[in-house]
Records
---
Amino acid sequence: MEDAPNHPPPDLGHLPMLLGHALRRAQAAVLHEAQAGMAELDIRPAQHAVMQVLHRNPGLRQSQVSQALGIQRTNFVPLFDALERRGLVERRDVAGDRRAKGLFLTDAGTALLARLDRIQAEYEARLTARIGPDGKQTLLGLLARLSDPAFGPG
Amino acid sequence: MEDAPNHPPPDLGHLPMLLGHALRRAQAAVLHEAQAGMAELDIRPAQHAVMQVLHRNPGLRQSQVSQALGIQRTNFVPLFDALERRGLVERRDVAGDRRAKGLFLTDAGTALLARLDRIQAEYEARLTARIGPDGKQTLLGLLARLSDPAFGPG
DNA sequence: CATAATGCGTATGTAGCATAACTATTCGGC
DNA sequence: GCCGAATAGTTATGCTACATACGCATTATG
């Protein structure tokens, strides 16, 4: 027959009721959609986020950007290197502290960011369509409380 | 001073309003908590899930288990190998199909699973406490709709 | 000025996820 | 019965994410 072999779906027990499991699956699905959209531009979501932060905060130090995004300083380096090799961003020396590097978007980076933002808006809209605007707000609130216990019932 | 340097928090723009971003952070936080609980037993969440499925569905094939959990067949092998080396599970030949292997928990595996389930219940309760039982149900519903578009508004 | 702390970078290891290719076995059509 | 397609499992490999330890230059502190 079509594609329904003798696979009676296994009994997953209460696994679908576990937050970790549901989160993992949802995150995988969403990530997949995000990557599909940006794959043609060869930019990963984390890199896009970096570019967005730099657009609003030119000159930030690496440690500030990576901390703001929850990326480890050490893993930030190759991620940013790849962007710099493509001429989308650059490190400039900081006046007054010769250790630090200020991070900036180039013109090419700013241009690409505009395209990325448009793509992002599209799939964000697709996702929102699945749960409705209210659902999205509710979801964001719940996720924030899970991420950061300090959020309380806010 | 303590640990409040001259870091004025960067402007993240609408990044916190993005589902992908919020999901990634929440998933990282929850995964961290899960791993912390099971680290002492040297079992990872995916392995625990496999054991749970086998407990309810003894004799399942590898492809069925991995498909049910959203793991690729190919990555399932080393994951299961590790469990088998520890004597927690086993592969048995299947009558009627010499290609297939039926998967089973051993007694040791069943015993360990009980401990894992208890640990899991604990941190699941901790997580639920952060958002309330209603919040959890709402969250699970929204995540399911994100994961699987077919879920519709059902 | 010696020492600690900071900002950045390198090296390394592990886990997760994905693809291609292989063996053994079973199935389908003839 | 035989041959090609499909299936179950496995191996090999690469890439990304994430974590830790360490080193180097520079700056801050006492």
---
Amino acid sequence: MVRRGPTLARQAALEILDGIRSGELAGEDGLLPSEAALSQRLGVSRATLREALSQLEHSGMIVRRHGIGTFVSRGQPLMESGLEQLESLETLARRTGVDSHMGQCDIEERVATRVEADALGLPAPVRVFAVERVMLSGERPVAYLIDVVPTDVLDPRQLRESFHGSVLDLLLERGDPPLQHSHTELCAEAASPELARAMRLEPGDPLLRLTAQLYTTDGRAVDYSVSYFSPGHFRFHVIRRVSQLAPPSGGWTTDRASDRAVDGIGKQGAAEPNASDRARETGDAARDPDAGDRELAAVSP
Amino acid sequence: MVRRGPTLARQAALEILDGIRSGELAGEDGLLPSEAALSQRLGVSRATLREALSQLEHSGMIVRRHGIGTFVSRGQPLMESGLEQLESLETLARRTGVDSHMGQCDIEERVATRVEADALGLPAPVRVFAVERVMLSGERPVAYLIDVVPTDVLDPRQLRESFHGSVLDLLLERGDPPLQHSHTELCAEAASPELARAMRLEPGDPLLRLTAQLYTTDGRAVDYSVSYFSPGHFRFHVIRRVSQLAPPSGGWTTDRASDRAVDGIGKQGAAEPNASDRARETGDAARDPDAGDRELAAVSP
DNA sequence: CAGTGGTCTAGACCACGAG
DNA sequence: TCGTGGTCTAGACCACTGT
């Protein structure tokens, strides 16, 4: 019973998706079978099925209503997602049926700038490929993309042979290194004269700028990118959820903690005699487990 | 053993957070106790503990490494979050230790415009409160916020008494209706003369604009807001994850599905004799279970 | 190899919504 | 009251990592 491949939950999610797409699963009111029924039908435990449903819910395909049932989401053909889903511009365009192609492209091997090395979490004198290009939709420039990748992640041959506009797609296709997430910062910026020329806009026109670091599953940054988007051509959105961690106003004190036992941390002698409050500032970035999340919304007055 | 209140997992997450903050849980390398140890220490099952850790991981507080352990994230004092966490500007400012207060505020009761009614998913002639104000940091205007709320969600007394700058915080404090998520669209926009005057900028200066609809747990939209942010004062980011659903390039076929049984949907006779492929287009929005996710990144060439 | 996190199961009970 | 999704448990086995 070798497993290998995607998790059971993911397989189940895709099976359900198929069932929805073909119309075999949901009634015309969009109601899916109950969790018990689905789990039996798919031959998985209810826990696994729920994990699958969670994935589908998180991508917005279904909606769950306590005490009622699980429904197929309304809206256009099952297709998904906002900014929180990491995908390339090319994939986005293909998915939404829009023509897009690469305009002028400039690949250069050089030493990383200070900012780039910082963003990648690497010591300053590191060699990188810098890829700059314009993306067009029809004849109109709609985005200007810059990627900076350490040369040990991508070699020049691969880059020149397999590159068709997206570094992300290239890495995903190769499957190595395994990618996990991207930390993307958003801001508005006025077009510089150079950018304006490349994108055929007026200098000073507002652009949406995304600055991203791409991380592998083991926390290494492998791509630093800056992207400019001409307004009106793209619509980016995010689903913002109310925090699962924030206390529900007024704060609540232990009520179950009194009869259960969720209070073992600061009270009785710890099983692990750990150190004092000494702030963690050991300056080794070598086995740093994340190396670059954090510091998210900062305000500078 | 009445429960009431937050889930066990959430309590556990907060306990762990406390343990991290006080420095009692992690060694100076940031390594937390193993899941087995933690679950025993907190008196919860490992499954529940893992749910708690997942919440912490999702907010970026910890990093998990298969075969190694769970680590406290690097970065400044534990404090979190990007755009995917829904919080008010006031909360953000307080959290980051920045002074912020409301400038001129204008509350008006009127009939919703077509755009507003559409965004709220309500029939056109509906009465709303429109709240417009400038947010200042020190003396500098840093954001311009507009909220539109149906009058049946908020009554004038509450609005005038409890409003201190954030409609979101007002609703969260009241706890009713229960909020779930916000669908937020981002774009860059040049400041109009009016906006420029209110924010003491030059007309044409680039602004980041967030357009959001706020939804309750039962899928009703209760707030439509447009927010403009002066560049340089805020940093917004998003964590973009590689899709859990997308096949890992090349697609994979059943490999476990052959010995397990994840294939019950399109093959043998379904337990539920459901309808044909007839597209679901029944035009009733009444009991629509989501009414407003979807259509995310669209491109208009 | 031992120890860690990752996945999965079977079963239990609770909370919610509708008839 | 009944059926739904929501939470929790105890235990099992797997896959990854370091030694």
